[in-house]
Amino acid sequence: MGIDLIGKFSVTEKVHNDESSELFEPFMASDESILLSYKHARDKVIFTSKKIICYDVQGITGSKKEYRFFPYNKISSFSVETAGLLDGDADFKIWISGVGCFEIKFGRWLDIKEIGVFMSDKI
């Protein structure tokens, strides 16, 4: 059985939550806060108290931007796969009810287990 992959994203660096707040605050509820924040070049992924938001800057000029929102209450399951000897990235996948799977690849030096513990508290 294949996975209905609706998107794939990569992050290579954990950043301070304040670095992401201005970019994401317009999409957050007044009682919502950023708890984890990651980036790769121009792209960012944050984990808030209510949802995951992915920010994808597209094209050479970066004028086209896409935000993807994944509320925790719509995530039916998730998986965490640590980096291997030949595979340098750790994989984090979420399954969204009625939609499909979304994958985020984390750089080898990022703590993927932190994401697993975090998500265990949210799902």
Task: Describe, in plain words, how this protein is organized in 3D.
This protein has 123 residues and is mainly β. The chain is 15% helix and 50% strand. The chain is built from 2 helices and 9 strands. It has helices spanning 18-24, 112-122, and strands spanning 5-11, 13-14, 34-40, 43-48, 51-58, 64-71, 75-81, 89-96, 100-107. It starts with a strand and ends with a helix. The mean pLDDT is 88.
Give the structure's gist in a few sentences:
With 123 residues, this protein is mainly β. 15% of the residues lie in helices and 50% in strands. A hairpin with a 2-residue loop joins strand 4 and strand 5.
Properties at a glance:
mainly beta; 123 residues; five-stranded antiparallel sheet; PH-domain like; single chain
Helix content: 10-25%
CATH C-level name = Mainly Beta
Report the average pLDDT across residues: 88
Element pattern in H and E: EEHEEEEEEEH
The rounded distance between the terminal residues' Cα atoms is 24 Å
Task: Write down how many β-strands occur, each being a DSSP E stretch of 2 or more residues.
Answer: 9
**Strand content bin:** over 45%
CATH superfamily: Bacterial Pleckstrin homology domain
Strand numbers in spatial order across the main sheet? 2-3-4-5-6
Biggest sheet character: 5 strands, antiparallel
